[in-house]
Amino acid sequence: MSKFKKKKGGEIPAVNTASLPDIVFMLLFFFMVVTVLREDNLLVQQKIPKGDQVEKLKKDRSVFVYAGKPSPRYQDKYGKEGKIQIGDKYTDITQLSPALTELRSKLRPELQSKVMVALKVDEDTNTGLVTDIKQELRELQMYKIIYITSPGNQIEN
Prior knowledge:
The chain has 157 residues and is α/β, with parallel strands linked by helices. The chain has helices at residues 20-34, 75-78, 96-106, 127-139; strands spanning 50-51, 62-68, 83-86, 89-91, 116-121, 145-147, 150-151. Strand 5 (116-121), helix 4 and strand 6 form a beta-alpha-beta unit.
């Protein structure tokens, strides 16, 4: 009689998958937290001027207005003149007031009187278009205007 017995079958034991759902949910939550969703699809060209005194903007009480020439893929349809974009669509200067009023109403009630309009204007945009936008903002009593720039010094470039 032998003291040691050989194992019959020599199978590899099954992998324990009890912690697999925990790992999957942990990865899911990680990617949900770190993913940044794009809010607007830019239809205008954006070559932002540079500024040497740049501050970070709080997005909870701001409304973004984009101005510039249409992107090359939209120039056949909309021309090459400067356009105003709010959200994902072009807005005419006559429709700017209702569009801004609608965006203001979407903000929290306590922030509606403190709304800041962020103008993201292409550096080659006609000044008359910016003046028209500012005139509409005055009529809506939206006096807090921020110009979006990129860090740097315009003189050095």
